Input
Amino acid sequence: MRVAERKSKLRFTITRLALTLFLAVISAACKQPKVDSEMAVKPADVNESRITNADREPQNWMTYGRTYDEQRFSPLNQISDQNVSRLGLAWHYDLDTNRGQEATPIVIDGVMYFTSAWSKVFALNAASGKLLWSYDPKVPGNWAVNACCDVVNRGVAAWKGKIFSGTLDGRLIALDATSGRLIWETLTIDPNFRYTITGAPRVAKGKIIIGNGGGEFGVRGYVSAYDGETGKLVWRFYTVPGDPSQPVESPILTRAAQTWSGQWWKLGGGGTVWNAITYDPDLDQLYIGTGNGTPWSAKFRSPEGGDNLFTCSIIALKPDTGEYVWHYQEDPADAWDFDADEDMILADLVIDGRARKVLMQAPKNGFFYVLDRTNGTLLSAKPYTFVNWASGVDATTGRPVETAVARYTGPDPAPIVPGPIGAHSWQPMSYSPVTRLAYIPVNDAGFKYKLPDSFAAQKLAPNYGVDVVAAGLPQDPKVKKAILATVKGKLVAWDPVQQKSAWTIDRPGPWNGGTLATAGDLVFEGTASGNFEAYRADNGEKLWSFPAQTGVMAGPVTYKIGNEEYIAVLAGWGGVFPLAAGEVSFASGRVRNVSRMLVFKLGGKETLPQVPAVEQPQLPALPNPASSATIRKGEQLFQTYCAGCHGDVAVSGGVLPDLRRSSALTDDSWFEIVLRGDLQSEGMVSFSKELSRDDSAAVRSYVISRRNQNAVPETH
Ligand code: CA
Output
């Protein structure tokens, strides 16, 4: 070694020693746990102390909700209500997909980790947007047919140098945070059942906690804990009872089984943990939210009645063993797909003069719940938007007081609000301990529920157990206009103690983005109509807006590198609403998918490349010799098999191609796609096991009839 090099190395060592001492002093001054001086140089070096005290590292966004309490509040205040007008794009990173983007990025020591559609994982330099690595788990395209709600993914977890994420086809993967190399992967599901993973894993005490979806596809819900080092299963908690002739997996399921009737296990049961998982280090409890029973209608699921525990519930478990601690069921005998899977926020609130450790949730059913999380007792529940299925929640029993319309037993479809997309879904809400307000992206969209004459489980279609034709948007212009006029969205700032709104921003339609609250007195939210916006957190004054060129659904984050604060959000329209709701989704704005990470800083000057306008040329009518009976049969089949992805009554919401415009309407490629599976790699599997050639032809006649009805483009 040359002398100069030695000197340089010595200087480096001295600097390093000084830095270590400095860090030690800082550490002692802040009464923080001992900090390893290597901390900042090993990627994703998250340990027990760091993640439990994540609030003390405002420069990072270490876990899905930033901190274990999942408040999505950042103490950073360089960007504030005083200067947010100067916020500009710092960089953007374009993604190789046109499917929905739902992930919250996490940012640790200057590196951003996030997931995209098809469960792909990315690591970027969080200051520059430069790609460090990416990982494609190669989800088979044909698994997409098992996903209710697009091939989305909501993010990663980090622990001791590894990045963890779930894949659509049910794997949990562990990647080396430095290189993106696969360290282990484990199949968390039985692939004979139609499970999917779209939710972000969480880390609790070295275990990786992951659930799954499939409540519409005949699965039995559960949540699992895997050892972060080895990928070995530590425990699994089933949320609904299984086949009574088999051994019971946990004692509490014996009690749960008493709330079911008929042969529910043959339909799976449901109760999936597809999104909400929150660890509470204060009480050493893990909370999970569960979804609907299978199918939606309780009548076909549990014909002799019963509450169907633990569907649509919040459950507390012991994180070491998965043992049951308590539960609170929001929707006994749910019949509407009112999942309780929405993110749960933990906070210390003073209620009626008493300090309470609470859990807050704004689930699909439209009520804002405040629970005492020590024991699951209901403290209060009030509607955070218009609902007509229940007049309130009984404070003594904790049960909803259902209205006459709720059970849709009549011969006509019952318009019930909210509908299956929920008054609020997975788009994360935030809570500011400064303003003491929760910021909820609210959907106002009902659904026409009607019981069908009978129900038979389908292998490829979703199993709703409701009349899918009756649910379709009527084409009578007056009726249609009246229904569309009721479809709205809003950003609601909600006071959880008073249980009332402090301010509201009206949106043209539902499915707006998750929210971020900061100590700069700001709330950030993306919109379904294609903007990313900032509001004053205390009074809702609009301060800033950025044209994002696409619908923005995901939860924004903030982080700091050096002396620069950044705001990041993953943009890209998709998810179940534009996929399934058809023309109703146009209420939000006619956006397309442009998938990219957008990152902002004060004075940012970067610009986005222009995207061409959406072309909606007039559709020439096609010959359609089919009888009206065949077209009606085609409608029934379309609404059963196709509408979930290609849109209600054959109108695409802008993510997947609009079938009315398909060139396959006029040649035999229609059958090659529908029956042979020619587009399987993109998610369009063969339906030959469920549909005959005649069935397939009837579906095509129906789509042609819809095209011919709409020979002029929609005007929304
Ligand atoms: Ca559901």
About this structure: The pocket of calcium ion is lined by residues 215, 291-292, 337, 339 (CB under 6 Å).
